Amino acid sequence: MRIAEARVIVTCPGRNFVTLKVVTDDGVTGVGDATLNGRELAVAAYLREHVVPALLGRDPARIEDTWQYLYRGAYWRRGPVTMTAIAAVDTALWDIKGKVAGLPVYQLLGGRCRDGVTVYGHASAATAEELMPEIAGYVGQGYRAVRVQTGVPGLSGVYGVGKPGSVYEPASEGVPAEPVWDTGRYLDHVPRVFADVRAEFGPHLKLLHDVHHRLTPIEAARLGRDLEPFALTWLEDPVPAEWQDGFRLIRQHTTTPLAVGEVFTSIWDCRELITGQLVDYIRATVVHAGGITHLRRIFDLAALHQVRSGSHGATDLSPICLAAALHLDLAIPNFGLQEYMPHSAETDAVFPHGYHYEGGYLHPAETPGLGVDIDEELAARYPYRAASLPVNRLTDGTVHDW
Ligand code: CS2
Ligand code: MG
């Protein structure tokens, strides 16, 4: 069996997605997500111009060899564009292998380690009062874990706080929006919100919070300490993710568990954090960290150090990435939680899939491969629309981390 064709499909069913579809000479197809939010066309060009020509004629069964060929062979290693492109190829080849074997991909990865994949939902609202019914809504649907984000009094909008009742969307059309951020107001507000949430929902609901890289290590240490009475499951991205020493300082001050990794692209980004036990959850994901093959390697390293998985799963990762993540989540021993934000109906229609939510768990499809596809005719009806993630500024206009 040989790779006969590989198509790069860019579509915007409400938001932009890039997909690689690999076709073999006997007609088996596999799909991989290649979406890099706000930089979609860079990955599409990397695939079209540099990767697809080298794939044609290769044996699709050689997943590891193809990974090494693309990673080592390019000489220019790592980076989000490269690793997203490699991920797309890797994911598509696992899909093909599953279809050829007649097995869902999690079976090829060693079989299930659990009955279902525990997911966390996203409760967010502009005010603390509006937040409570949002959280109650998730609890009512059976969620065991909820990420809680709120607006901050005095700030007009805060990244990560969606509009209640609508599909979460981190990018906006055109050039970046420039919201204003104030660390002091945030640090004052968030512990009060969690005090109310814990009082309302009791000790057993898992609560998470995403700082989105906006603090310095000592500010994050203070927040972690202030949140200790409310027993968070994790505090996410407390400082910019590349500042790994920052985690050492936070660790010296607080027992609030830490999570990081949605912007990581390789095991090299995670290595010190994992081996030093500076974090508790590693949130790298299939589409940005080199596919199923490489993410498995990261999770295996994490397992040695009692670090658990917590893969990124926002709406800007396509249903193909979510399907792939679920197969891996089911098969690794050190699974922690999976982020889950349902996609829009338009997106779900473009990516027909067999995974489903039930009582706090997601379950991958039992069909051979990943159990997800792209409807190319439908996808063609939604042309690409330029959209950007925001740029964060302080009240005096300084560009800040986010
Ligand atoms: C967030 C995302 O899901 C998360 O935890 O941090 O909204 C993230 O900012 C976006 O996926 C970026 O594209
Ligand atoms: Mg996050």
Automatic annotation (TrEMBL):
Residues 129-257 form the Mandelate racemase/muconate lactonizing enzyme C-terminal domain. Pfam families: MR_MLE_C (PF13378), MR_MLE_N (PF02746). Transmembrane segments: none annotated. SUPFAM superfamilies: Enolase C-terminal domain-like, Enolase N-terminal domain-like. InterPro entries: D-mannonate_dehydratase-like, DgoD-like, Enolase-like_C_sf, Enolase-like_N, Enolase_C-like, Mandel_Rmase/mucon_lact_enz_CS, Mandelate_racemase_C, Mandelate_racemase_N_dom. This is D-mannonate dehydratase CC2812. PANTHER family: D-GALACTONATE DEHYDRATASE-RELATED, STARVATION-SENSING PROTEIN RSPA. It comes from Actinoplanes ianthinogenes.
